[in-house]
Amino acid sequence: MSTKRILLIDDEPDIQVLTQLSLELEANWKVITAASGREGIVLAESQIPDAILLDVMMPEMDGLSTLAKIKTNPKLKHIPVIFLTAKAQISDRKAFYEAGVKGVITKPFDTLTLASQISGFLGW
């Protein structure tokens, strides 16, 4: 089986480092990081990751806006997206799933179980 490639789109450098270390060490996945929705879409188009981890609350283009652009892009719409968010209200989660995410992981998350959570949502 080939190594999974994960694109993490999050504006917080600490989250980028923790997530990248966690997934590369625990699951041996390759993690590509982007600090904004716009940068993430450009990277997604050039790298075509196996999955995208997407922060909901970001400046300029938030997670829902970024997700909408991913879902309407013929080159990207097949890529599963999982939200990483501090917004854990039931109404928020309902809106996220209706928008097309495969899962929601609440911040702060456990770095030791992050890969298994992602695998669970994506059936890996």
From TrEMBL:
Pfam families reported for this sequence: Response_reg
Keywords assigned: Phosphoprotein
GO terms of biological process kind: phosphorelay signal transduction system
Membrane-crossing residue ranges in chain numbering: none
Keyword Transmembrane helix: no
Domain of life: Bacteria
Domain Response regulatory stretches: 5-122
In-chain residues carrying the UniProt-annotated modification 4-aspartylphosphate: D55
SMART domains: REC
Protein name, UniProt field: Response regulator receiver protein
Originating species: Stanieria cyanosphaera (strain ATCC 29371 / PCC 7437)
